[in-house]
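Lab channel / #folding
Pinned by the channel admin:
"Please post every new chain as: sequence first, then the C-alpha cells as a reply. Keep commentary short and put observations after the output so the thread stays searchable."

First post following the new format, from NK:
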Amino acid sequence: MELVLEFSVHNQVVMFIGEADQVVNNALLGFYVDTSCLDEVLKVFEVMPQRNVVSWNTLIAGLAGQDRPSETLGAFRVMQGEGMGFSWVTLTTALPVCAQLTALHSGKDTHGFDRMHNRDLTSWNTMLAGYSINGQINEAWALFDEMIRSSIKPDGITFVVLLSGCSHSGLTSQGQRLFNAMEDYGEQPSLEHYACLVDILGRSGKLEEALNVAENIPMRPSGSIWGSLLNSCRLHGNVPLAEIVAKRLFQIEPNNPGNYVMLSNIYANAGMWEDVKRVREMMAMTRIKKDVGCSWIQIKHKIHTFVAGGSTNFRRSAEYIKIWNELSNAIKDLGYIPNTSVVLHDVNEDMKATWVCEHSERLAAVAALINTGAGMPIRITKNLRVCVDCHSWMKAVSKVTKRLIVLRDTNRFHHFQNGTCSCKDYW
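Reply from TO:
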C-alpha cells in the first residue's frame, strides 16, 4: 500500500507541478530509497536538472542499502569529480563500504583528515573495534584503560567490542571478568553480551559452561547465541551437543542456511556421511541454499570479484598458471601440505585437493600477485569464514612472496606476514 501511495504522489507531482524543483526531487529520491526502489531512485536522479549534496547522499545511501558496494564507491567518486564536496552523512555512508571491500585506498581518500581534536564515545568505540577485529587485543585493552582515565563512560557497544576481542584471542578468564564487571560501569548485559560470553566459553572448550549460560539467560535466547554454541561444537567436534543446539536453531531460524551447513560440516568432520546426506536433503526440501564463497580485491579503483570454483578463463590463463605453479613449488619446499579435511564431501583425495585449490580467496590472491607490483600489500575480503587450509596457504604465500596479505573474513581481519598470522591461528 505504501509503495502504491508513493508512486501516486510521484504521478501527482508530474501532473500538477511539471518539472519538480530540487527540494521535491530530493524528497522523491528519499521516498524511493526508503522503499528499496533503487531503479526509481536511479531514474529520478538521472533526470534531475540540479543536484546538491543531499541528492548525492541519498543516491549513495540507496546503493549502499542495496548491498552494491562497487557502485556506491563509484557514485562517491563521480560526486567528488563534479566538485560537489561532501558532508558527514557522505562519509558515514561511504567509509563502511570501503571497510566492507577492504578498499584501503578508497577509504583513505574518503577519510581525508588525520587527527581528531574532539573524541566522543563513538570515536573511542570505533578505535577499540579496529584493534579488536585486527587481532590487536592488547592495544585494545590499553586504549580502554586510556578511555576510562579520560572519564569517558563505556556503553554496551564498548563491551561487545572488547568481549568479542577476548573471544577471538582466547582470553577466556579476562573475558569472563569483563562480563562480570559490566554492572560496575552501569551497563546491564544484553543478548549480544551473553552471545559473546557463550562464544568465549565455547571456543575455549568449556562447552557445558557455555550451554549453562545459554539456557539460563534472563531473556529469550537469540539465534546468535545458539549459533555461537554450534560453532564451538564444530571447533571441538562435539556431535551430541551439536545436535541438541541445532534443533534449537532450526526452530528459531528455520531459513538460515548457515545453521544447516554448520551441522552438515560437523557430521562430515566426524565421517558421518549418512547424516550429512540427511541434512542436505532437509535443505533441498525447504529450498535452502548454501552461500557461495566469494572474495573481492581492489586493483587501482576497480573491484574484482572471484567465486569459489569459478573464474575458469582466469584459471586457464598463462599468467595464472605460471604464478600458481611457481607458488605451489615454493610453498611445497616450505613444507606446506594441503589439508583436504576441509573439503566436507565424500570424494577421493585428488578431487578434494582440486576443490581446495579453487577457493575464492586463493584466486583473488593470485590475481593480486599478477596485477600489483612486487612488495605491495594484498587486501582481500571474503563473505565466509576462511578455512584452515586456505589459512595455512596464505601464511606460506606471504613468506615466499614477502608480501603482507590482509584477508577479511566474516570473523576478523587476518594479517599474514612472513609466514605467520595476526590471529595466532585462533579464529
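NK: The beta strands are 294-299, 302-307, 378-382, 405-408, 413-417, 420-421.
TO: also worth noting, Residues 318-333 form the longest helix (16 residues).
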